Amino acid sequence: MSYSSWIQNGSTEDKETFLNCPITKKRPLSTADLQAKDKIVDEKTLPVPFEDDFTDLIDDWFDDGMDQKSEAPKPKKNKCIPEHVILASGVHNRYWVLDVRDITSSRSCTEKHLTITCSKTTLSRETCILKDGCTPVAVGDVIHLEGRCVSGLWTIDRDSGFLVLLPDLLISGTSIANSIRCMRRGVLGEMFKAFDGGSKQMLNGTIVHDIFQKAAMSSDFSLERIKTFAAEALRNPNYLGQMYSLKLTQADMKQEVEEYLPSLSEWSKHYLHTSPQAGQKQLIENMVDFADIEENIWCPRFGLKGKIDVTAGVRIHRRGRKPTERIVPLELKTGKESNSIEHRSQVILYTLMSSARRCDPEVGFLVYLKTGSLHPVVGNHMDRRELIKIRNSLAHHIGNNLIKVDGRSQMAPLPAIVSDQQACKYCPQKRNCAVYNRYSVERDPMENYSEDPQAFVQSESEHLNHVHLQYFSHWLLLCTLEALTMENKGGRRNIWLQTAQQREKSGGCAGNMQLAGDVIVLSDGVYKHIFVRKESDQTLTGLIVGDRIVVSDQDSVLIGLAMGYVTEITVSGVTCSLDKNLSKYSSNTVFRLDQDEGAGGLGTHLGNLSMLMENTPTRVLTLIVEFRPPQFIDSLSSVLPRDAKDTVANILKGLNKPQKQAMKKVLLSKDYTLIVGMPGTGKTTTICTLVRILHACGFSVLLTSYTHSAVDNILLKLKRFKIGFLRLGRSQKVHHDILPFTEESCRAKGIQTLEELEQLYNKELIVATTCMGVKHPIFSRRRFDFCIVDEASQISQPVCLGPLFYAQRFVLVGDHQQLPPIVQNAEARTLGMDESLFKRLEHHSDAVVQLNVQYRMNSAIMSLSNVLMYEGRLECGSERMASAVLQLPGRAQVEKELDLFVCQPQYSAWVQAALEPNSPVCFLDTSEVPAPETVEKSGISNNTEAILVQAIVTLLLKAGCRASDIGVIAPYRQQLKAISSLLQGDAFKALEVNTVDKYQGRDKSVIIVSFVRSNPEGNLGELLQDWRRLNVAITRAKHKLLMLGSASTLRRYAPLEKLLCHLQQEDMISFTTLPAAAHEALPGIPL
């Protein structure tokens, strides 16, 4: 009988017998074993989780013949090893598979003989004999090997060693356990991570877990203490929010939770070392210590990750044997005491993960909290091997989810739908499974897909037509392509594949850090830590305030100890708020802080895409996917309440004509309105005014944007008009002046009941959050009259969908001629991933209003944007604005000093042109200097341009310009670093150096643009070839725009050629060719 057949068809009695755990002898484990990490004898001898006499505790509960079916071999890949692949030997070895041969052994068993290398040159080759031939490994795969290598030969068989496929793809133990009965569910669960569902049972389980963990860490399981923990949990803000979402009452949950409390207390009497009754059970004498709760483990040796409910020190004894102490995982379960294969699998995987962090526990325990029963689960080699095989199969499907057909990418087929109605009935991936199946059948009608293998496939997708399925499949492909590029650029794997020193060179890491002072508890599960350099002479680089970080030990043995955010950076240290208290580690522990590049991902994109396909009446689906034209009301009189007309009229008085048209269009809309906000036309002011009008009319408004800063900029204006609102989101991301309006601040005033929480959620007409923040409990119940999305042209379509589900009408504000959504994958960009929802819906011109009266730039700077993008439509708001120039009271003195120090007039002439207020636009051509670019692994920079930027900034400051009025823009981060390193000191502190993307929606009196690229080949890269980015760069300046670049290089691309031609034709614009070695001729000018 095959393993899968046994799972699906075997009787319950068979399974329970199969999973039984008789207890017998075991050798004692020394304290040294508990404390010591496995040692590496040499780099070719790797630690294998050891087994001694635990083998007689349980026969292999995976029989050798019970294997998953062999996967079809993948098409062979090019043997050229891609640049992003990191290979290594040692504990975290990474091998590239060069060749795979299927061999039939003398015993008629199929083996795979792999030719592998851990060197990019592929000169150093080794061989791996995989005696388990069903692992889906192919040429071009990256693998990790556990076991022993003798003279370049690895042997992986049923008794020793593991092969881990795509080990840097960390898969949770829960996903693997879910894949045992249905591999398709496991794959979909990794793709659509936001869809784990929620229920009363799940919430009850979470609360009971919390109570047990708190009792464990306090070593007090008395019924009185447990009841106190339960009462606190029922008032916990997170749990109140989940109760609100699930429409439960605190009384309901109290009744559910209280059923478990006596058994928790009773459990402690049997197993806690402080109890007189402890040690009377068959296997465990007692629990010696609770080492951790929710221990986060990332295990790249085995390609696993997970959170262990409780990590406990236990004393294990067997008859006639000396007791043995182990640190073991406890998996808490609140459901039926099933002792199921899924439950046992999770525990075995936790023992395997634990073995990579400390001495192999070999055994873990299932704790069923309703009955207080404890089941030992042994992690022997055979069981672990079978679970690693399932993990490899899951990794194969996830890692190879794209295939090429006729040179184009498309989604690979999923594993087949299982014929298990009970499993499918409660599967959280049911909708995604059905929709994926429908579009696969439509895409490949000749393929042998099962016809309606389950009734749910029809019921979950019958409302969808071909257009809907096409939209789903198109965006699923785009998101998958983008996720692949994001992963190839590093993701989290660099935390364990690169040393802290290597990571620091490329940015995004602070290594050699130690804890300083006490850890402060900020709130439940949030701890303030201060880290300082072990060697104080090193400067801190690579991290900025607001970065999400992962904390590990310096040697990447304890990976992912804690996660959180950087809250402050000083010369000597970094302050963070973390989700774990690290003070329990030795004071000598050295940590590394890595920027968490794997956070976020595309989970929100795919979650919203799935929600769009939901079988409920949704106008969003018809408006966005089917392109139904938006509808409008004929007259304002039917919209405006009588008592609000005077208020609205007063608000409208401060607006120009296009802004008034926008207000009217929104009020008349039945579906949606698009407001095009050209540069400087006051999008934020327009949105604020719109919210004021809607508020005056009694409409509820959901105010969103992609960034926290954009949301808060609008709220700061609303605050001045004394309009109330509720701000959702993490307080660390919210502007200081908006903090009093946050949910967190309101809750601090004392919200302890669901009724009080409901009042808070319904109190204000205006609710504000980012597009990513719509997973908040408030959206499970509340719906809004209007949703306003700022920065809509910068937001990817699936992300922009999120807030639209919760409003009757929506307003998108943006400008597709400015920054588009950021897309890193070239194929995804070609296929249209950078088309925002704003751009998609702009085809319905009836819904579009253009704001074209700008109040930022003088007429000379505005003319650039008009020529480049707007065909003359952009207008100045006043004559005063059109003629405004830069004020430099000390300019004459600076020019006098230059005349004294610079002998040759050509070296001071370009400076005079750069400082001339009546030439608001100045292009400084560096072709003759020359100023060649530098291309390095860390990025592209131009040191000569950086020196010239420093000189110009210094001259502007000397001439009387304030540092806060100057902004420097460059397209490459490496150039920003080069410029910033030259602008050190208090005089430059208020000056801002940033990318174009960071300046969207903002302005400065003076903007200096360093174009960087300068090479004989005329290679500009992708950034400078984007008209929209160029448009944003040149429209940030109010009074003076200074551009530095090599005209001969820049002219090779159309937008820059068009810009340069315009510069040379206009009288008010200065086009100046810098003399040779211009950057060396200026004297050092003191400030």
What does this molecule look like?
The structure is a single chain. This protein is an alpha/beta fold and 1087 residues long. Among the domains are: 95-190, Beta Barrel (OB fold (Dihydrolipoamide Acetyltransferase, E2P)), CATH 2.40.50; 196-274; 278-379, no CATH class; 508-554 and 563-595, Elongation Factor Tu (Ef-tu), domain 3 (Beta Barrel); 656-855, Rossmann fold (3-Layer(aba) Sandwich); 879-1073, P-loop containing nucleotide triphosphate hydrolases (Rossmann fold, 3-Layer(aba) Sandwich), CATH 3.40.50.300. The strands form eight sheets. A seven-stranded mixed β-sheet has the order 5-6-3-2-1-4-7. Strands 25-26-24-27-28-23-29 form a seven-stranded parallel β-sheet, with helices on both faces. A hairpin with an 8-residue loop joins strand 2 and strand 3 (126-130). Helix 21 runs antiparallel to helix 23 and helix 23 (683-696) packs across helix 24 (708-720). 44% of the residues are buried.
Shape descriptor reads globular
CATH architecture of the domain at 656-855: 3-Layer(aba) Sandwich
In CATH, the topology of the domain at 656-855 is named Rossmann fold
Q: Outline the biggest β-sheet.
A: 7 strands, mixed
Q: How many beta-strand elements?
A: 39
Oligomer: single chain
Task: Report the uncertain regions.
Answer: 1-78
**Mean of residue pLDDT values:** 86
Structural class: alpha/beta
Q: Assess the beta-strand content as a share of residues.
A: 15-25%
Radius of gyration: 32 Å
